[in-house]
Amino acid sequence: MRPFGEAPPGDPAAARQQTAEPLYGARLWRQVRHLLLNLPVGILSFVFTVTGLAVGAGLAVTVVGLPLFAAGLTGSRALGRLARVRARASLGARVADPEPLLPARPGVMAWVIASLTDGLNWRSALFSVLMLPWGVITFSVVLVFLVIGWPALPWVARWLGAVNRLMVEQLLGPSRLSERVRELEDDRGAVVDTAAADLRRIERDLHDGAQARLVALAMDLGLAKEKLLDTELTGEQAAAAEMVGAAHGEVKLALQELRDLARGIHPAVLTDRGLDAALSSVAARCTVPGGVSVSVELRGPDGTVERPDSAVEGIAYFTVSELLTNTAKHAGATSATVEVWRSADRLMLQVGDDGRGGAVGPDGGFRPGGGLAGLAERVRAVDGVFLVESPAGGPTTVTVELPWRTRAPRGAAR
After folding, report:
1. Residues facing residue 401 across a β-bridge
2. pLDDT digits (tens, 9 = 90+) for 133-144
3. 164 and 53, same structural domain?
4. Which pTM was predicted?
5. Which of 23, 174, 224, 368 is deepest in the core (most CB within 10 A)?
């Protein structure tokens, strides 16, 4: 184990910087300033954190107790952000910023739950409490050596700074588990995006390759059929004309099947025009007697229309398409509705019908291997939520919540 304050092995640049740095240079005074300021910062952090948590815990039996307690934890998290900035500037700490606290759903209770269950909040509160005794120690020791221990000050400041840096990195940085989770989320997002890109490429290849050739073949056979019909034919020629006509029909059928296959892989209208046009096209093909009403509103907080990740668009499209197919085949409904909107960083879908209901079992579960179970698995693969309300006698409402992006921006952790 290397002594505190020394450069890590294999880091010659940092080692040279430490060797070339004069003992009483700017680096020492940055450390001294940091260690002296630990006391006032520690007092403020300790008072704020302990007061907030104590008041929140004391009022826990009331409506405002838990929100106050959560606010105390969130405030400690903000103080931890300040501690990271100070440690980077004065002590050379290498600590990444955690990801922002993101409640699972909008609302005060969701924020309270997220705050109370967030590990960094609790570690930040512990750091704020420890800062008071630590601030007393660093202030006292540095002050003594400033007055009577001047020759040993650089080494004392270096060791105290190393301990302070270690505290910040261990308590206020992203945990190994959260870093691993973020890596896995990025990997999963990359896989989802790659799969969506492959599906779009296959659809384009079918559209521009096999489908275009079948269209040309159908046109040639159609022209040949017309020419044969315009002439008088002998028995063998009439048989050949029938074969040409049959081949023309088979080519048109194969072309339609290929178009349906390409649409099932990834519809071109979704790539070109987005969810609004794609879902309107699905609704127009749906065989529900009273038709399907579609409403899509994807404006962001600033009022501009944005599109989610292409992989999320694909999941949303196929989910709605499958739900409408189930409605047309099994629900006995006279009408259906599709609503799509954006809520913060989530894409919300709701598909409803006035059919007979009973789409889920008495316990609210899905039939294993059924269509709804498959849709739920697809949605949950990207951390989505799939909820079905379908009492016997109807109506049925399916609500789906998807992330707006499959991968969060780098640079912050939970």
Report:
1. 348, 385
2. 999 999 999 999
3. yes
4. 0.50
5. 174
Task: Give residues with Cβ within 8 angstroms of 48, minimum separation 6.
Answer: 72, 75, 76, 79, 128
Closest C-alpha to 93, from 146, 172, 196, 20? 172
Residue whose pair of structure tokens reads 């292409």 in the numeric block? 310
- Domain annotation covers residue 411: no
**Which strand (E) or helix (H) includes residue 336?**
strand 336-343
Q: Are strands 336-343 and 292-297 parallel, antiparallel or unpaired?
A: parallel
For residue range 265-307, what is the model confidence (pLDDT) as tens digits? 667 777 778 888 888 888 888 888 888 888 888 876 667 778 8
- b/e code 389-402 from CB counts within 10 Å (16+ = b): ebeeebbbbbebbb
CB 333 within 8 A of CB 327: yes
Q: Which two tokens stand for residue 312?
A: 């999320």
**Given CA atoms 102, 103, 107, 108 in this order, what sign does their dihedral have?**
negative
Residue 5 is assigned to a structural domain of this protein: no
Total domains, the chain: 3
Structural element, H or E, at residue 400:
strand 396-403
Same domain, 280 and 382: yes
Given a contact cutoff of 8 angstroms between Cβ atoms, the answer to whether 88 and 81 are in contact is no
Last residue of a domain, one of 265, 297, 314: 265
Radius of gyration of the chain measured on its C-alpha atoms: 33
Angle (CA) 172-176-177 rounded to 5° is 110
What is the DSSP annotation of 286-326? ---TT-EEEEEE-B-TTS-B----HHHHHHHHHHHHHHHHH
